[in-house]
Amino acid sequence: MMRVLRPVALAAALAVMAATPVVAAPAASAQTMRDRQWYLTTLDVAAAQKITQGEGVVVAVVDSGIGEHPDLDGQALAGISYLSDDNSLVDDSGHGSGMAGLIAAKGGNADHLLGIAPKAKVLSVRTMTGSAPAPGTWTRIPDAIRWAVDHGAKLINISTGGYLETGSWEAVRYALDHDVLVVASTGNAKEFPDRTAVLDPASIPGVLAVTAVNRDGKVWDGALHGPQTVLAAPGVDIPLASAAGGGRVIGYHESTNSTSNAAAIVSGAAALIRAKYPQLPVKDVVQRLIATADDAGAPGRDPEYGYGRLNLVKALTADVAPVAANPLLSGVQGAPDDEVGSHTFPNVLGDAIIRMLTIGAVWVGVLLLAGLILLLTRRRRT
């Protein structure tokens, strides 16, 4: 049966952030931004960054853009904007900048955020603004994935989701075929109250779908989850860089909760792996992340934690045997019918055409049936 994907984008509100952060520099007596980054200790990021800091790796951030912020100076690469203003280095919602900071903020003193991979670069691929487009408009995620692959990204972070366009499966396969890993968030229940499953594109086979855990390592109760969940990472009480744009001052969001955060942290971890093992194919990058994860929840892979919680240092140092095939593609036969072929027209238009054709077919059937009845009636009379 054909699966219809409706092209409704997720708003940048996937990260539950305050609208106008005003924290420019914490007072000496208050917690610093570094203090608030509790996950740096949980993941032993200091030890990981003694091994590598992500040099030479480009992570595409498919999101709302990346704006100006001192913690991101020199870190962001101009990419492409699929919006009307054609500027990728601007961020009206703040979501993309926050994700970029989690991945590659350069740190400095304790009043600045430190990314997981501070010497990696983040490539801005802007696909959305501060609110979801109207139904029937494009989020352009499949195009964004292909563009990022073709322009040097070794990783793609998609901390957004929803019901995306036709072509998403093909775009993910295109990335994997070109040795590029796609990391995506499973989604937040608050933004999708009618949804009980992992969002697209995280639900697509081959995508590393990430859910969020809190300080205690428990899965966040605001996360969507399902059998597609691959990994769990910190996503609760996470501070974010707030770049200029959309009426915001440059500063920080002191505490946010979302699977978006968790996906960005895993993208930073994957950037460290790709920096340490530059010849390692994407299938083995995935294997390193899942084979070294700390099992949680039900034994083995489960719908809430996936293979378990991210263990960053172990992922960088453990002896992990290579695999013959990507473990996230095991048993996958191919894309559903609606993912094959061109996606020139929005699905909302396709749905309308299908409805018109269906209605037309019904009327043709009614007329034919009426004609047949009339013909039989006349024959009986004669």
From TrEMBL:
<keyword id="KW-0812">Transmembrane</keyword>
<dbReference type="Pfam" id="PF00082">
    <property type="entry name" value="Peptidase_S8"/>
</dbReference>
<comment type="similarity">
    <text>Belongs to the peptidase S8 family.</text>
</comment>
<dbReference type="InterPro" id="IPR036852">
    <property type="entry name" value="Peptidase_S8/S53_dom_sf"/>
</dbReference>
<dbReference type="InterPro" id="IPR023827">
    <property type="entry name" value="Peptidase_S8_Asp-AS"/>
</dbReference>
<keyword id="KW-0645">Protease</keyword>
<feature type="signal peptide">
    <location>
        <begin position="1"/>
        <end position="24"/>
    </location>
</feature>
<dbReference type="InterPro" id="IPR015500">
    <property type="entry name" value="Peptidase_S8_subtilisin-rel"/>
</dbReference>
<keyword id="KW-0732">Signal</keyword>
<keyword id="KW-1133">Transmembrane helix</keyword>
<feature type="domain" description="Peptidase S8/S53">
    <location>
        <begin position="54"/>
        <end position="308"/>
    </location>
</feature>
<dbReference type="InterPro" id="IPR000209">
    <property type="entry name" value="Peptidase_S8/S53_dom"/>
</dbReference>
<keyword id="KW-0720">Serine protease</keyword>
<protein>
    <submittedName>
        <fullName>S8 family serine peptidase</fullName>
    </submittedName>
</protein>
<keyword id="KW-0378">Hydrolase</keyword>
<dbReference type="InterPro" id="IPR050131">
    <property type="entry name" value="Peptidase_S8_subtilisin-like"/>
</dbReference>
<feature type="transmembrane region" description="Helical">
    <location>
        <begin position="352"/>
        <end position="376"/>
    </location>
</feature>
<keyword id="KW-0472">Membrane</keyword>
